[in-house]
Amino acid sequence: MSLIIDNISFSYGERTILGELSLEVPTGTTTAVVAPSGSGKSTLLRIIAGLLTPSSGSIILDGKNLSLVPTHLRSIGMVFQDNQLFPHLNVYDNVMFGLRMAKTEKTIAANRCRDLLDLVGLSQAAKQSVATLSGGESKRVALARALAPSPKLLLLDEPLTGLDSELHDRLAHDLQRILHATSTTALLVTHSIPEAEIISDSIHRLQITIDIVPDGEKK
Amino acid sequence: MVGHCFEMKIRNLRVFAVPAAILVFVTAVIPLIILATSVIDKADIFSIWTKSPVRRALFFSLWQALLSTAFTIFLGLIATWYLSRYQFFGRRTFFALVTVPFVLPTVAVGAAFIAVLPRALHHSTFAIVLAHIFFNISIVVRTVGPRWNSVDDQLIDSARMLGATPFQTWRYVIMPLGKNAIFSATALTFFMCFTSYGIITILGGPGLATLDIEIYRRAVQLGDLSGATVLAIAQMLLIAIAFLLWSRSRSTELISFRAQAVSHRRLSLAPKCFFLTLTAFFTVPVLALVAASLRTRDSWSLTGWRVFLGIQNQRGFDFNFWQAIQTSGKYALIASCIAVPTGIAATYALSNRISSHSRLSAFAILPLAISPVVIGLAILITYDVQPFDFRSSWLLIPVVHAAIALPFVMRSALPIVDGIPNDLRSVASTLGAGPWRRFLTVELPLLKPAISTGLAFSLAMSLGEFGATSFLTRRESRTIPIIIASLFGKAGDIPRTTGMAASLVLIVTTAMIVITIDRKSHT
Amino acid sequence: MKKTSITLSASLAASLVFMAAACSSESSSTKELTLIAYDSFALPEGAFDVFTEETGIKVHIALSGDAGEMVAKASLTSGNPEGDVMWGVDNTLISRATDSKIFASDPTEVDYGYVCVNFDIAALGSAEPPLTLDDLVSDAYKGMLVVESPATSSTGLAFLLATVAAFGDSWPDYWKQLVANDVQVVDSWDEAYYTAFTRYGGDRPLVVSYSTSPPAEVIFADPPLAKGSPAPTGVASETCFKQIEYAGVLRGTKYSDQAQQLVEYLAGPTFQALLPESLFVYPVNQDVALPQSFVDYAPEITTSFSIPPDEIAKNRQSWTDQWSAIVLR
Q1: What is the distance between the alpha carbons of residues B433 and C124, in angstroms, rounded to a whole number?
Q2: Does residue B82 sit within a domain?
Q3: Is chain C in touch with chain A: ≥3 Cβ pairs within 8 A?
Q4: Taking the mean position of all CA atoms in its chain, how far away is CA B207?
Q5: Which fold has domain A1-75+153-219?
Q6: Which residues of B touch C1 (CB under 8 A)?
Q7: Cβ contact (<8 Å) for B161 and A100?
């Protein structure tokens, strides 16, 4: 389940936001794309997710070109920067959502849900309303929700931005642990190199000019 | 210490709801009680329901209300979805087109529909349902719109990424999020259709009578006041209870639509066609009215307009339009001066306590829920002795108008008042502002949008009010809707084209007032 | 803080009450009388100037809905009326009015009119226009007539009463024949006249209206008719029901003498002369000359139907119900 980003570029009107970007994420690993804010990181994720159409280039997931595949069929999960939990559903139902959409059999779905909640350390909170969750808790629910339908690829948009520093480090290690435990292929974007270093296996620096410079491996 | 202050504040704030309660008591509750105790024959309470015209009227009321509500909600939700989430050419205009009709005068709109529909459909359930959609789509857009507008695009994206097809997204995310607002819109639409009076009067016909019409017939033609009052009270109770049950949620408001951060997605062909059709639906009747005001049997003529504007004097006519405009305007301003402060004060007092507010809203809806005939009669026998001889005062009519506009002022104010954070008041206190200064410098400016919308509603409703106004005895010059009705009661080209011209002017004026004030409240 | 708001709310409420009460006390000077009339009581300016000059009393007009509503309200407030004099109770309502004792003494006749079938001359073309009620059920006029429902229209009621007077107990058969002859029923006069009548784009050349509708057509024609041309509509002169309107002093008024003077004025020549071309009715006062438009265009009705008012009051509802059962199946 490797991801290949092949020569993606995106312009909005006259502005070029992304220019001929190519990148590869090997199966089961986490890659971080690091760049300052406003450099088109979120745009990149949206293109991969299928929420935006690139001006040129293609996304290839697991050997399959996704150009004509609509978002809900891409089997790509995403953790948004502000989590976007469904306010009308409780924690459990939020995590179940993807499984319901896929019409997964009830017992299998329930088990998966429970397992994930355990994994993120929130099994006690299953029936809670999402409005009562703290920042860190919401992030973990968002992660569990995205992972529940076993996506081929997980995207994370600035996962730790905005969380206070103590939470930051703890969550960063948690993320790394969970992603490895589930053998998820993941791509995360962030402006913080330290964050990227904890969570990911390889880092790419994205510059405002065209090319990316592949940088060192994680220690 | 803080808790104590907070408590004190809540206790004394409730007092602001008193004027609203007084208004409703004075115009509806007390008169109705007096009427009921004076004229009801206990036997009628049960026997009235056995009469077949009553049952037919009840059935038709329910039937046409259900039908109208179903179509209104269906079309309204489609329109609201696109209006609240997409940017497209003409969106603002379309929004105005859809939301203005709610407060247009029923007499004038009835005239417009008569002008546009083929004869065979003039008196049909079809025409009634059409007219109801015309008026009430606004409710859906104004109630559900803000709710859907506030749904983050990314929330929808999340759903899609979790594998939800567009239909599943709609069913499991969009509809649940709008559930409360949709219920409220449905309740209010049903209520408006059930108690619809002006439209049924004009577009109804033999066999197409609602309960309100039957109440009128009983009271006026049959002289059966007892039966009419029983029916009116039953209808009122039904409406009030249903309203109370359904309006529990906070999203029951008809507010100015602050369309923020609308996505830049373009509309595909199907929605475009839908909007084109809807635009035609809203503009064609008005255009038909323009044509009808200029057309005599086989030629075009400006006479109707000339007579209306007073340029041409017409033998046999004594309708002084300028005076009527003055009277209508005066009533509208007075009604607003009463309704707006009263309504906003009441909302202000109760916004922190949802159940109290919904109870007061349901209570405030009473003047609208009771047939205008019955209210008129009730007021007649209640206020007939000094020092309460209100019925001989011209002020009575604007006061009744205010009572009718009150619930709408309250509902439109709620979300805005709600949005004022409590902390703001605390902050101002710590900076040394006493209660009055706090109110004037911090809260009043934030209440401006509520004041604007409330003002727009009261002005428009007063200008177009016909039922209660025509029934209560008027000691001053006629209002414009009364003149329109009188004109349509005379034979000849000239009264007819003049009536059409007057209807058109009334519609345009009301629309302009609402649009201008709505626009202003957006800045 | 608490006290301020209570004081404020209380004063707001109190001021509303006193404002209204204060306004009402204005109108209790003896120099003004209130005349209650129906909504379409539209007279030219200065209609009461002569009265005011002669008596020093101003006349204030209060409009009270249509005739039925007006009487309903007056019945309810009998003995404590909203005004001093009432204009416009007609013969279908007078029984109810007297039963509720709304008048201080017997009301005076002030005007009369006829509800008759009108026809559109142009639409009839070369065909003979109808003359009698019997004509209306003949094949020649199949599918041509539109009537108003007596349940909702006073014009419709008058026509029904005409048929009751004409055919006595077998009036239901007449209506069955009308139904078989494809009569159209609408709710109100303006619906019948302005939408169903061929003159205004409808498809029915025969309509139940007033014998004074033809002069109205001429006066209000747009573009104006050429001088000397006949009225565009005519009247089937043996289908008419006579409507009489009354005015009277209301029981309970504080100014009965002055009110009586006003009633006399309403029946007097000065006022009566204004009636034809503003209300399109005939003045009761024989000293008043009819205007030219009436002379030229309003047909003379020599025979008309009528029913005693108390009989109308007694049977109106059952006649209407019977009618509905036959016609509105």
Answers
A1: 82
A2: yes
A3: no
A4: 26
A5: Rossmann fold (3.40.50)
A6: 8, 12, 435
A7: no
d(CA A64, CA A62): 5
Q: How far is CA C92 from CA B251, C166, C242, C302, in A?
A: 52, 17, 10, 21
Q: Which residues are C37's β-sheet partners? A: C63
C85 in Cβ contact with C265 (< 8 Å):
no
Q: What is the ipTM of this complex?
A: 0.82
CB-based burial label for B118 (10 Å; 0-12, 13-18, 19+)? exposed
Domain count, chain B: 1
Q: Give the C-alpha separation, B376 to B225, whole Å.
A: 12
Taking only the tens of pLDDT, chain C with its 329 residues reads 444 455 555 556 555 655 555 444 444 456 889 999 988 888 888 899 999 999 999 999 998 888 888 998 898 888 888 899 999 999 988 988 988 899 999 999 999 999 999 999 999 888 899 999 999 999 999 999 999 989 878 899 999 999 999 999 999 999 999 999 999 998 788 888 987 899 887 889 999 999 999 988 888 887 788 888 888 999 999 999 999 999 999 999 989 999 999 999 999 999 999 999 888 899 999 889 999 888 888 888 999 999 998 899 889 888 988 998 898 86
Q: Is the peptide bond before C214 cis (omega within 30 degrees of 0)?
A: no
Element holding C238 (H helix, E strand): strand C233-249
Kindly report the CA angle at B6 between B4 and B11, in degrees rounded to 5? 95
Match 């036997």 to its residue by tokens.
Answer: B43
Residue C61: name the closest of C51, C48, C50, C73 by CA. Answer: C48
C66 and C120 within one domain: no
Strands C85-90 and C233-249: antiparallel
Range of the domain at C186: 114-243+293-327
Are residues C249 and C319 part of one domain?
A: no
Closest CA of chain A from B150, distance in Å? 12
* Total structural domains within chain C: 2
**How many Cβ atoms are within 10 Å of B4's Cβ, its own excluded?**
8
**Burial (CB count within 10 angstroms: exposed 0-12, middle 13-18, buried 19+), residue B491:** buried
pLDDT in tens, B252-296: 444 444 444 456 666 778 888 888 888 888 888 888 889 888 887
Tally Cβ neighbours within 10 Å of residue C127: 12
What is d(CA C94, CA C304) in angstroms, rounded to the nearest whole number?
A: 19
Report the residue of chain A nearest B153, measured CA to CA: A84
Whether C217 sits inside 8 A of B492 (CB atoms) is yes
- CB-based contact, C140 to chain B, within 8 Å: no
Structure tokens at A4: 């290949």
Pair (C310, C199) in one structural domain: yes
Residue B4: inside a domain:
no
Q: Identify the residue whose tokens are 């809540």.
A: B10
Among B154, B160, B172, the residue with its CB nearest the CB of A72 is: B160
C235 and C312 housed in the same domain: yes
Domain residues for the domain of B452 are 18-253+265-295+302-520
B12 belongs to a structural domain: no
Regarding whether C261 and C178 lie in a shared domain, the answer is no
Report which of C250, C305, C263 is spatially closest to residue C114, judged by C-alpha positions: C305
Structure tokens at B228: 């009419």
CATH code for the domain in which residue B41 is found: 1.10.3720.10
Task: Please return the burial class of B385, using the count of CB atoms within 10 Å of its CB with bins 0-12, 13-18 and 19+.
Answer: exposed
C62: left (phi over 0), alpha (psi -120 to 50) or beta: beta
Contact C243, C159 (CB under 8 A): no
Q: Judge if C102 and C230 occupy the same domain.
A: no
Helix (H) or strand (E) holding C243: strand C233-249
In a domain, C15, yes or no: no
Determine, for residues A78 and B161 on separate chains, whether the beta-carbon distance falls below 8 Å: yes
